[in-house]
Predict the structure of UMP-CMP kinase 2, mitochondrial.
Amino acid sequence: MACRRAMSRLLPQWSSRVFSVELNGAPFYFSIQEKHRGEEIPQVFRQVQNYDRCYSLLVCSSDRIKQARFHSELKEKLRRDLPTECDLSPMSSFLPNVKDSLVKGYFLKDMSVGSTLSEKLLRDVIQHDPVLVCSYLKSEDGQLWTQRLWRDAGSHSVETSKDYYVVPSEAPEYHPATLNIINSDVFYSFEEAYEVLKESADIIPEATSVLELLPSRAKARSKPDFPVIVIEGLDATGKTTLTESLRDTLGAALLRSPPKCLSPLRACFDREPPLIRRAFYALGNYITAEEIGQEGMKTPVIVDRFWHSTAAYAIATAVSGPVCNLPADSSAVYRWPRDLLQPSLVVLLTLDPEERKRRLRDRGEGETAEEQELDHNQLFRLKVEEAYRRISGPACITVDASPPADQVLQQVLLLIRGKCHL
Ligand SMILES: Nc1ncnc2c1ncn2[C@@H]1O[C@H](COP(=O)(O)OP(=O)(O)O)[C@@H](O)[C@H]1O
Ligand SMILES: Nc1ccn([C@H]2C[C@H](O)[C@@H](COP(=O)(O)OP(=O)(O)O)O2)c(=O)n1
């Protein structure tokens, strides 16, 4: 039902949509055009010319929790059940420059003989799951491709719409992922993040535990009397080392985000899709803010990671490809949430990648999946750092963390004394 509603929203503007498929690590954009006899159609899809047919699966449900979870589950299902001759790539579809128009899914290249297995699986998927399926067929001379949209016709049969030609499309002005970042990857108020966890509570029991730990929004806290200093940076840049030294030197309270009370729940949310996972981290900041409010009435407060981490990792994960795909400097995605406590100073520790890796090795810990990703994916690391730098209100001040720990401490103490009158 939720799927039918979502589809009835998508279908009226189907032919205005742009489709993006990640082929060989780069996006290939195409749109569709009605068939007119005798019309010249530019040749497309050279990248999939070795295949006889392809399919696209776009996940669409008006229930955003179901949609996000099913997008992850579908990948597992296709990897498990499709013949080995099938190849899967991420894909999406969007209306250029239209906010929240992005739908995500997978593009399937099929080399299996007769394609019967994959067709059977897709027929099953379309009948039971919130998915829009299209097949792509090559013309007899192998030059042109057409797209045919499938529809569930009930009683285990599907009907197809008319064919459209697939035509190449220009890369859009903004990376398509940026259309949906606000309130899907990054949340700009307590309420927006809270709603996501509330909606997930039926299927994720741990969401209820998080909701119970949240501060009441009824009483807005006044600004703490003492300065609040946040230390940010990638894993192993020296945040723990520096925050502990600052605590001891300044006689400050040391807090972190996510707060300790969320530690037992973190692994559960790290397994969830971005919508739910990022809402969890966003809410963690509000719990930490409440703790800052209390401690900050008595002493200065040092905070190990806060909002910058939440937004920077979320934006860098959502946007694929190089740093230039990030939303422009002036984009609203880098703004500070209107209802979140603003620290007096945010310091970003930066480190040469080789030195960071050496410190990780020396620490001898296993890396988190995301940190392995950071290692393997230089682009991701660069995007996280760039997103850190673009977040404003307050913006972070970058400090080179490669000198010995006591020198980094002195450098940051100078900044604190200059900015916070300590
Ligand atoms: N300035 C520094 N110079 C050399 N090694 C450092 C420095 N700061 C931290 N380290 C070491 O690097 C590793 C990572 O530091 P840590 O404070 O745990 O980083 P984070 O909290 O950012 O993950 C630790 O083994 C730590 O002892
Ligand atoms: N305030 C925070 C802190 C961490 N996060 C997220 C961002 C990344 O997905 C991970 C990084 O956490 P990681 O385990 O590397 O953190 P530590 O270095 O252990 O502090 O957590 C967040 O979203 N908001």
Remarks:
- The chain has two domains: 2-178, 189-420.
